[in-house]
Amino acid sequence: MSSTAIDAFLQQHLGSGWQLQPVPGGLVNRCWQVDHQGQLYFLKQQGAARHNGVDRVEEIRLQRALYQHHLTVDIVAWSASYELVLFAWVDAPTLTQSDSTTQLRVLADTLWRIHQQAPPLPHWSLSSRVDNYLQAIAQYEAKVANDLAAELAGFAPLLTAWDQHPKVLCHNDLAFAHILMSQPPRVVDWEYAGYGHPCFDLASSIAINELTEGEVAVLCEHYSAHSLKHSGETITPADLSDWRQLIDLVNRLWFEAQRVQRTT
């Protein structure tokens, strides 16, 4: 998207007199802080979603619903293509800046809060999502796609368990950097959220935050403190072992899909 299109979007929704300051974004997104006459906003330019299985319309709807439960940030405006989204600015550090003890406690608490939400959102299939990644890769590198598909076949029982287990809302990308330490903590970057298996979400957070085995045990303890009260069940590191291997493979599929997307 050109700078002219961004200028036009901000002019439409804020008027004149704004300034942009780049802030770190992800692999496929660009972000800025917008200062409009002393009022701050967060502007996100979202990358193409054609290989990601991301539904931008549902992503906006989800975040607006979760804002009512103080779980995310208010959306001020978005472009017709959903490529540009303007958020209210939250003046709070991310969980990345906290000590390890706080990080693990807040991460577990936030995962549990997310898993208790039930917004209106279409269910999705993990099997279909990874098939979408494989098809994207196969268009350009058939051997890579075939090798990954053979590896994925070994996880068929786990994919079946994902489909059959009662679904909870999952973030699926809950990095420390995606949790703002406001009161209460608020979560950003919901593009991969959807109903799924809680162990998949926990395993995803373990991978993206590069937790040690000791930290995984503490995370499970904090999360189980909630689940034990709710259902009498606990989650142990052993319960997550296979899910963590699946997450590693799904992440590799995602990165390969992004790579071929950037080269086409």
TrEMBL record:
One of its GO terms (biological process) is phosphatidylethanolamine biosynthetic process. It comes from the Bacteria. It holds the Pfam family APH. GO terms for molecular function: ethanolamine kinase activity. InterPro entries: Aminoglycoside_PTrfase, Kinase-like_dom_sf. Residues 20-224 form the Aminoglycoside phosphotransferase domain. One of its GO terms (cellular component) is cytoplasm. PANTHER family: CHOLINE/ETHANOALAMINE KINASE, ETHANOLAMINE KINASE. This is Aminoglycoside phosphotransferase domain-containing protein. It comes from Aliidiomarina soli. The lineage of its organism: Bacteria, Pseudomonadati, Pseudomonadota, Gammaproteobacteria, Alteromonadales.
